[in-house]
Design a protein that fits this description.
Blueprint (H helix, E strand, L loop, with lengths): L10 E5 L20 H14 L3 E3 L16 H10 L5 E6 L6 H14 L4 E6 L4 H6 L7 H20 L3 E4 L4 E5 L12 E4 L3 H10 L2 E4 L4 H17 L5 E7 L1 E2 L3 H13 L3 H14 L15 H4 L11 E2 L1 H13 L4 E5 L3 H28 L5
Parallel strand pairs: 1-2, 1-12, 2-3, 3-4, 4-7, 7-8, 8-9, 9-12, 10-11
Antiparallel strand pairs: 5-6
Helix pairs in contact: 1-12, 3-5, 5-6, 6-7, 11-12
The structure holds flavin mononucleotide (FMN).
Protein name: Dimethyl sulfone monooxygenase SfnG
GO biological process, one term: alkanesulfonate catabolic process
Pfam families: Bac_luciferase
């Protein structure tokens, strides 16, 4: 079912480097830091550059490069306190979090930040992490069943008094949370691309985040999520991951990509690939994130090279608009040297995207020739 692209401007989010090692499994030197001072400054640069959202990550243990990991909710609050417009998306992992604590934490941060907090409900890919912290590792589709109940419970607690819910994972009896979140209600993002993930997005999420891919590779997912959401009388927006290498010439950008891959840590990349493919094995249709990832793809945690935002500002702007044409609402971006590259992206790429969008809007508004 074809649905036209959104007339709204495409939004931009960046991955918060709140874990060490950046967003690539590579020993290439990076000027990115996971510490608080670097990240506060980065958030200020990003909102100045025209970014709408920052996405924090949740990791409880090291693995495949992420030796140190700041916790996502507390870190998100620090970024909100350092900014005035940026929305910050805090990652929540059902299991370690239950909806009671999550609803209370996020409602308080929403009050403190005048509604600028959002959440990303992640369902888990790292079985070793679950084992290390004594959390049961559920089958793939069970993890999504729990995430869906988690979201239903959160929404109920945030919007109703005397909330009552009887699920398989969570139960509430006449529970009233006060204060509730400030308006607008926190947006609910979700990370994951399998059939279970798409079905859950269509039923309960506001946003569906998927791994990097080409416009053609994304089209089928977008159409599936949108059609299922429409059948539930809902609209779900789509965010796609990309690793950006924007340089004055395409050759420079390609050389940086090659350098990242040449410095990849082969053992860590292979072990990461094994872990993520294993995590999706119980997903019956085999279409989850990483199902078709090559060694080179896996050097970036979420297949961000596949989206090919690698080249000159003009090339990248055109590719972003091509993503929008297949229904993408938000580009979620990672960089090698975050502060400098977020600023360059804001100066060189976002204005080009806005100019291309304006040309398309004008063409769409013109009456068709007789
Ligand atoms: C944009 C995005 C962000 C994610 N962030 C996290 C995270 O912070 N922590 C985590 O454990 N998993 C994270 N994940 C992993 C997902 O929750 C999920 O486990 C994974 O994508 C596999 O899902 P699938 O089998 O449905 O494709 C993220 C995924 C995406 C696409």
């Amino acid at each position: 079912m074809f649905q036209p692209p959104s007339p709204e401007p495409i939004r931009f989010a960046y991955w918060v480097p709140n874990v060490s090692g950046g967003l690539v499994i590579s020993r290439i030197p990076q000027r990115t830091s996971w510490d608080a001072a670097y990240n506060r400054r980065l958030a200020q640069i990003a909102e100045e550059a025209g970014f709408d959202y920052a996405l924090t990550q949740i990791r409880f243990t090291a693995g495949y490069g992420a030796e140190y990991q700041h916790e996502s909710v507390a870190f998100s609050h620090a970024l909100l306190a350092a900014t005035t417009r940026l929305k910050v998306i805090a990652a929540l992992l059902p299991g370690p979090w239950n909806p009671t604590l999550a609803a209370k934490q996020i409602a308080t941060i929403s009050q403190l930040s005048e509604g600028r907090i959002a959440i990303n409900v992640v369902s888990g890919w790292f079985s070793g992490e679950f084992r290390a912290i004594g959390e049961p590792w559920l089958d793939h589709d069970e993890r999504y069943r729990r995430s869906e109940e988690f979201i239903r419970a959160l929404r109920g607690i945030w919007t109703q008094d005397d909330f009552t819910f009887r699920g398989d994972f969570y139960r509430y009896a006449n529970y009233t949370l006060k204060p509730k979140p400030a308006e607008p209600q926190p947006e609910i993002f979700q990370g994951g691309s399998s059939r279970a993930a798409r079905d859950m997005a269509a039923r309960v999420s506001d946003w569906y985040f998927t791994n990097g891919n080409t416009p053609e590779g994304i089209r089928a997912q977008v159409e599936d999520v949108r059609a299922k959401a429409a059948a539930n009388a809902r609209r779900v927006r789509i965010g796609v991951n990309a690793f950006v290498i924007a340089r004055d010439t395409e050759a420079e950008a390609r050389a940086v990509l090659q350098e990242i891959i040449d410095h990849a840590d082969p053992e860590a990349v292979k072990a990461f690939g094994h872990e993520v493919k294993n995590a999706g094995r119980a997903s019956p249709e085999g279409e989850g994130n990483w199902a078709k990832s090559s060694f080179e793809d896996l050097v970036q945690y979420n297949d961000g090279f596949k989206t090919n935002l690698i080249g000159t500002p003009d090339q990248i702007a055109e590719r972003i608009v091509a993503l929008k044409e297949v229904g993408v609402d938000l580009a979620l971006l990672a960089f090698l040297h975050f502060q400098e590259e977020v600023q360059y992206f804001g100066e060189q790429v976002i204005p080009r995207v806005r100019a291309l969008e304006a040309v398309r809007d004008a063409a769409a508004a013109r009456p068709a020739a007789a």
